[in-house]
Design goal:
- The chain is α/β, with parallel strands linked by helices.
- It has a single domain, classed as P-loop containing nucleotide triphosphate hydrolases (Rossmann fold, 3-Layer(aba) Sandwich), CATH 3.40.50.
- The strands form three sheets. It has a six-stranded mixed beta sheet with strand order 6-7-8-3-9-10, with helices on both faces. Strands 2-1-4-5 form a four-stranded antiparallel beta sheet, with helices on one face. The protein has a two-stranded antiparallel sheet with strand order 11-12.
- The protein is globular, with a radius of gyration of 18 Å.
Length: about 250
């Protein structure tokens, strides 16, 4: 569980978000949405302990996240950000195995007895078992995106944070990754994702955090966040909301 209270997040002297209070609960999938520049990634990095708040508090499983060392923090939170340039001469398996490092004593360089089985399971769940020995820098952007998800699974943290987990993925693989994240939440993991697609958020999230105007404009179930006036205020363009075949759909009226 991640609990935030009255966060103010800033870069230098510029306040990005102010007065943000929300909770990410075990067994929940939370979607963070809002226009470009609203502070979605900044908020996600703060939840993961990589961007300290100017004011307010963030607790992860009852611990103040900024007071945790990197290894201890990684046992509580896995943060997967936008795809970065891969390191050369690293295989897919080696990259995913990095998720096991937080679970080893600092003095131990060799894998723990259970590490191989955990890495194999993470590769299988992300459909990467067949390319485990391939070089990471030989993969497409979409394949690498699945590697980062597999790394998070191998890390076995109870709180998983993903910045655009389906970017670079084609529709079938995007659907499978979203289904996997939904399944992890159903298994008791706390999952937060930053997404740009409002309809993806509505279809998969238990709750939605809507950012805009430097604030948390709404934090509730999709049906209460998908209000036309609220979305129009956040995105600055008229947005219509419809329900078709039981699904919430939002689209801009341009």
């Amino acid at each position: 569980m991640i609990d935030t209270r009255n966060l103010q997040l800033s870069y230098d002297d510029r306040i990005v978000l102010d007065g943000v209070s929300l909770q990410l609960r075990a067994g929940e999938l939370l979607a963070i949405i809002g226009p470009n520049g609203a502070g979605k990634t900044t908020l996600l990095r703060s939840l993961g302990g990589l961007h300290a708040p100017a004011h307010g508090a963030i607790e992860v499983d009852g611990e103040t996240v900024t007071q945790l060392g990197a290894q201890a923090r990684a046992r509580h939170v896995a943060l997967i950000e936008v795809d970065n340039a891969p390191l050369p001469n690293v295989s897919v398996r080696e990259a995913v195995a990095q998720g096991r490092l937080p679970h080893r004593p600092w003095w131990r360089w060799t894998p723990l007895p259970e590490d191989d089985a955990i890495v194999d399971a993470a590769l299988a769940r992300t459909e990467l078992a067949g390319c485990a020995e391939r070089a990471l820098d030989a993969l497409s952007s979409g394949e690498r995106q699945r590697v980062w998800v597999a790394l998070a699974l191998a890390q076995q943290a109870p709180n998983l944070l993903f910045d655009e987990p389906t970017s670079h993925l084609d529709l079938p693989h995007a659907a499978r990754i979203l289904a996997l994240l939904r399944q992890l939440a159903n298994e008791g993991v706390a999952v937060a994702i930053v997404v740009h697609d409002l309809n993806v958020a509505a279809a998969h999230a238990d709750r939605i955090a809507l950012l805009g105007d430097g604030k948390l404009l709404a934090f509730d179930v999709p049906e209460r966040v998908f209000e036309e006036g609220l979305l129009t205020r956040a995105y600055g363009v008229p947005i219509a909301v419809r329900r078709e075949d039981g699904m919430l759909l939002a689209f801009a009226l341009l």
